[in-house]
Amino acid sequence: MPLDRLDDPDHPTYGMGQAADLLGVPPAFLRSLDAAGLLSPSRSEGGHRRYSRNQLDRVAALRGLADDGHTLASASEILDLRASLDEARDERDDARRERDTAREERDTAREERDEARRVAE
């Protein structure tokens, strides 16, 4: 296994037992998330579930919301909406940066134009 996979948060690194131990949940909880379609772990060649760090983060967040009284389905929807909101905020921030850069370029071009006019007079 190339070492760069160790840095990939989407690489399916953890088996069910490891994932359950890290999260402090029973393996049945992880199986129930898979059965409900709320989490789709990769499968090893032998058919065993394999989880990525991003999936473990999602399970921890699902568990936290479930502990706060949400159903797993609503917790999943909340996480999806949060991800969509984060993506929209990133797009907004990118658009603002592009706008600010364009304004700076416009202002620089105007200054250069005005300077060229002054020199030409």
UniProtKB/TrEMBL annotation:
InterPro entries: DNA-bd_dom_put_sf, MerR-type_HTH_dom, MerR_fam. Residues 13-81 form the HTH merR-type domain. Pfam families: MerR_1. Residues 82-121 are annotated as: Disordered. Keywords: DNA-binding. PANTHER family: HTH MERR-TYPE DOMAIN-CONTAINING PROTEIN (PTHR30204:SF93), REDOX-CYCLING DRUG-SENSING TRANSCRIPTIONAL ACTIVATOR SOXR (PTHR30204). This is MerR family transcriptional regulator.
